[in-house]
Amino acid sequence: MHFFKLILRNAFRHKLRMALTLLGLVVAILAFGLLSTVVDAWYAGVEGASTARVITRNANSMVFPMPLTYAQKIRQVDGVRSVAASNWFGGIYKEPKNFFPQFAVDVAYLDMFPEFVINDAEKKAFLRDRQGAVVGRKLAERYGFKLGDTIVLKGTIYPGDWEFVVRAIFDGKDAKTDLSQFMFHWEYLNETMKRTAPRRANQVGLYIIELSNPSLAATISREIDAEFKNSQAETLTETEKAFQLGFVSMIEAVVVAIRVVSFLVIFIILAVMVNTMTMTARERASEYATLKALGFGPRFIATLIFGESLLIACIGGTIGIALTFPCAYVLGKVFGTIFRTFNVSATTVAMQVACVLLVGIVSAFFPSLSAARVKIVDGLRSIG
After folding, report:
1. Domain count of the chain?
2. In terms of C-beta density within 10 A (0-12 exposed, 13-18 middle, 19 or more buried), how is residue 46 classed?
3. Interval 187-210: pLDDT, tens
4. Same domain, yes or no, for 263 and 133?
5. pLDDT digits (tens, 9 = 90+) for 262-290
6. Do 21 and 138 lie in a common domain?
7. What pTM value is reported for the model?
């Protein structure tokens, strides 16, 4: 108990220095946590991908569609349980800044995604209404969408003003579920194209394929692509995880840069802490010499310095970690639907704790080594 009191008094002896060091630690640990959360948010789609689904797209690029007739041929491949068409819509809600994912999907699409939790009554209402739409809870809360509301999207890929009626609002099975999506009937899109742009009708952007046996994903993917080899629209079939990684790879340099910056922040605060502890040890050289003269050994002195360093690091780190959660919540609101999820993971907290301990231990290593080696005569000479 007396030993801990001594460490506590030593830590708060220079209040201004302590306050500035703690502030630096709080900012560094908070910044590290938020930057790590941003990286996690980019990979949220990958982490939430199902092994029981594969995605087929045009081999040249996702911007090129595939014929609707492919669906029947895909269904005939052994191991395929169901197939659903999906098209990216890309409409504008009121103004361009209001971005959120919009998909025209088959009715079978929702059955493939058990992570979308939808009330049965609302789901039936959606299925009955050709202009019906299903929206995620996060999206509904952000824009104030309610059941029965009419939503007008200005088409970009598909020109015109498109009216939809909110028939269902879905929640997520877990925290990784994307609740920012807007989905409507693919048939509504296709029928409109038949009237306004016949050449664009019966064209599918993606085929979502549910497998009866996830372990056969690679084999089934090869069979599907072989079926359409040398056709006008050759296909590329890949697992949902690989498909999501394709998007992440487009901005991989940015993600790596964010990760590097997060660790650079920790390195900077480590340098600050080392400097603080070095100054502290140098100022107390006479005190350490006195302790040695009284019979306390180098191990006791080193423990004092390590204890003080870890105490400072833990106080600053604890505050930084605690602030990460409310700050992440606010940032999640600011980012809106840019990220599918923006939650502080257990891994991020574990990394923050590891960084706190690392800073506390490394910062005390060289000052404790120097203090433990100080000679009694040299230390007492500096008194007065």
Report:
1. 2
2. middle
3. 999 999 999 999 999 999 999 999
4. no
5. 889 888 888 888 888 877 777 666 666 66
6. no
7. 0.73
